[in-house]
Every structure is written in C-alpha cells, then in structure tokens.
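Much of what follows relies on a compact textual record of a protein's fold. Here is one such record, which you should read through line by line:
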Amino acid sequence: MQQDRFEVLRKQLAETPGIGLEQLAKENGLTTAEAIELLPQEIWQRTDGGRFVEIMKALSKLGKMTIIINTGDVIFEYAGEVPNGGIAYGYYNLTPKSPLHGHLRHGSCKAIYLVERPFMNTQTVSIQFVNGAGSVMFKVFAGRDDERKLLMDQVEAMRALFRTDVSGVPA
C-alpha cells in the first residue's frame, strides 16, 4: 500500500517537477527528505551529514549564493557569500564579520543532498542540509549571473563535493 502511494507521488513529481517539496511532504505525511528521495534518482544525490563542516567551508569559497530557510510559516532568503565558520560550544559558528551570522547545530545534520531540479520555471541547483527528523535545516542555492543564468563554476564545485568525501575517496 505504501509503495503504491510512493509511486503515485513519484508520478506527480515527474509530471510537475517544480512542485514545492516541503508542501508535498506535509500534504502526504512525509518528511522533506523522503520527498527528495521520491524525485527521479538522476536529479539528487545524498551524502552523510557528518560532512557538514567540510561542505560549509567549501561553500564559503564559492562567492555569492542564496541561502533559504523555510520554517513552513516563514521563508527567509539571503543572497550573498556563505560565511566561513568554525566549531565552538556545540555549534558551527558563522563568522560575525559577515552580514549573515549565527550558530548552526552541525551535529543535528544527518544527511546532505545535492538537488538539481526546476523550480518556478527555472533550473536550480542546491545543497540541502537535513536533520534527523528528515526536515531541511537550510538550503544553499548556486548563484546566478546578471542574465539569471546559473554560475556554472559554482554548480561544478557543488557537484564535485558529492563525487568525493573528505578523504578524497569517491563518494
């Protein structure tokens, strides 16, 4: 029965690829992580949440990107450089010298997804940090140029993070 429901949702995602995953998950009693994994396999990849610090540090070197936090009631968007940070007191602390700063409970991250899919009639590439409950903590989207085209150097760097792990071994 559950498998039939998943097949219906997979078909819905294939027919309407830009559907909001958080809303789809909520309407169907799924976690957002489960909704991501219902997408066609060729548009998402997963790595372990233990790579949080490594991936955040890599993203901080890529230039202007967009960070989105969606609580269900609020969607916050920040366009700018991903701040560098370090670990102290149980948090990954973003540098206070950045316009975006704060404290991220990196140990709560259990999975990290690279998702390449259309949204609102435009192609997107994002890295999504997911907690143990299957909820997206936040997303980091590849930047765009003045013509709204994806910055391919960022896209390639994001993809590369999912080809190797911290030791340089293919993931």
User: Anything to note?
Assistant: The longest strand covers residues 109-119.
